[in-house]
Amino acid sequence: GGSGSSGDGGSMSLISGSTTDSSSGAMTMQTPSGGSTGDSGAVSVTTGSASNGNSGTMTLSTGASTGSGTAGDMTLSIGDGVVGQGGSVSVTAGDVVDALSGGVGGDLTLEGGDSNASTGGSSSLSAGASSSADGGTLTLSGGSGATAGGAVSLSGGSGSSGDGGSMSLISGSTTDSSSGAMTMQTPSGGSTGDSGAVSVTTGSASNGN
User: Fold this and answer.
1) For the chain, what is the mean pLDDT?
2) What Cα–Cα distance (Å) separates residue 177 from each residue in 138, 144, 172?
3) In the predicted model, is pLDDT for residue 4 greater than 80?
4) Would you state the pLDDT for residue 195?
5) Comparing C-alpha atoms, which of 76, 8, 14, 15 is closest to residue 48?
């Protein structure tokens, strides 16, 4: 799009063809494969920065299905490595650089879809398996803080007419060696504080057990 001095810069739209009876046109953004000694071309999609206003928003979404069809899927996949390692995926919310601004770091939400007719969508977060070495590690941790550290909360979903969601913490099984250990522990307290408490309780019941 064209540049602007006192007004906005020109917009740019990439839109495939529409249709009234059949499928709309597909859109492909792709770089070709690299040659025998080179890399394949990179793809970069970024929004511009802003000195006083808000930086540009980026939205990746598939269309809704208003009839009997299924809403479009979205796939984010990284290439495999034949000899080297597979590509990494990094999803990071924005930092706040100015320590005196009082701003809050950006949130990151991964959530399955809601359903008004059947079961809500599931979410799965797992480390990779290995057929020849150890499986990948999965770490869930709250952020460090200058005052209090960030909390970690794992909870099952609430139910209205049915049961609430269950929660299971199970260490790994094995066929030949020892099963995985499980540790529930709070760290030691500081020079003037107490160590953290551990509490394991079940809920109360008004009519049941």
Assistant:
1) 85
2) 21, 36, 11
3) no
4) 92
5) 8
Of residues 110, 71, 106, the one with CA closest to residue 89: 110
Evaluate whether 158 touches 164 at the Cβ level (below 8 Å): yes
Amino acid residing at 145: G
> Cα dihedral sign for 31, 34, 40, 41?
negative
Least confident of 2-6, 124-128, 137-141, 154-158: 2-6
Give the position of tokens 């099963």.
Answer: 179
Count of CB atoms within 10 A of residue 157's CB? 10
- 168, 156 in Cβ contact below 8 A? no
Q: Is the pLDDT of residue 175 over 80?
A: yes
Distances (CA, A) of 29 to 14, 45, 67, 86: 11, 11, 28, 22
Query: What token pair was written down for 158?
Result: 């609430």
Token match 């929660």: residue? 167
- Angstrom distances, CA of residue 175 to CA of 130, 159, 172, 188: 15, 37, 10, 35
Would you state the structure tokens that stand for residue 42, as one six-digit string? 């990179």
pLDDT per position as a tens digit, 139-161: 888 888 888 888 888 888 888 88
- CA dist list (Å): 153 to 141, 142, 147, 167, 181: 10, 9, 19, 12, 21
Compute the distance between CA of residue 159 and CA of residue 13 in angstroms, rounded to an integer.
45
Report d(CA 4, CA 82) in Å as an integer: 47
Evaluate if residue 117 carries a pLDDT over 80: yes
